[in-house]
Design a protein that fits this description.
With 208 residues, the protein is of the alpha/beta class. It folds into two domains: 126 residues, 3-Layer(aba) Sandwich (Rossmann fold); 76 residues, Rossmann fold. It contains nine helices and five strands; from the N terminus they run E-H-E-H-H-H-H-E-E-H-H-H-E-H. A five-stranded parallel beta sheet has the order 2-3-1-4-5, sandwiched between helices. The longest helix is centred in the middle third of the chain and has 29 residues. The protein is globular.
Length: 208
């Protein structure tokens, strides 16, 4: 992919840190957005090669009655089986990246100076830093993550802790980030940080 004068941003963080809030604010300021979760769902739609590969390996029991992928069932199968998880990723990841960069190219064709963001929750766990020019981490303390999770998903504190245990601790992720947005106070405080970040990103694009 030819590198133009654009910036490709990976927005990440932990669960319930407020990544979507920050990406929404950046979009309102002018950043183009690519939804990696939507892409991940699209590549396994009925009729797509990735779904055919998944069914060929896992069997038809991973399909719902309408022929679509039962994502929860697949998640349970691969959760504690690294070999099967890697196999699943080998079916989906190449297609996800292909579609991702197709969308990047479409944006850049219309605006060679675009600031493009993609929200990738497990960016660091999956070692995808190399795909992006800059990494933005949306941070909230672990205690705040637990509080938000229990409220948002109506689960117990123990269940929230178990969910967090499956991800790299948020404090560990900070060292991988080029920019950190602290999203633990009021929305105005977060918004001010995003505005300051946007100015830095604009200057970076000009310098490039």
């Amino acid at each position: 992919m030819k590198k133009e004068n654009y910036l490709l941003l990976g927005v990440t963080g932990g669960i319930a840190t407020g990544k979507s809030t920050v990406t929404r604010m950046l979009k309102e300021m002018g950043a183009a957005a690519i939804d990696m979760d939507v892409i991940a769902r699209q590549v396994v739609e009925p009729g797509k090669p990735a779904l055919q590969d998944i069914v060929g390996y896992f069997g038809k029991e991973v399909l719902q009655s309408d022929g679509s992928l039962d994502r929860k069932k697949v998640s349970k199968i691969v959760f504690n089986d690294p070999e099967k998880r890697k196999k699943l990723e080998s079916f989906t990841h190449p297609r996800i990246y292909e579609e991702f960069f197709r969308q990047v190219n479409m944006i850049v064709e219309n605006n060679p100076n675009a600031v493009i963001q993609a929200e990738v929750p497990l960016l660091i766990e999956m070692n995808l830093q190399h795909l992006f020019d800059k990494i933005i981490l949306v941070y909230a303390p672990r205690e705040e993550q637990i509080r938000r999770l229990t409220k948002r998903d109506n689960i117990s504190e123990a269940e929230a802790v178990q969910i967090l245990a499956a991800q790299l601790p948020i404090a560990e992720k900070v060292k991988y980030a080029d920019f950190v947005i602290e999203n633990q106070g009021d929305p105005e405080h977060t918004g001010k940080q995003v505005e300051e970040l946007w100015e830095k990103l604009r200057k970076l694009r000009i310098e490039n």
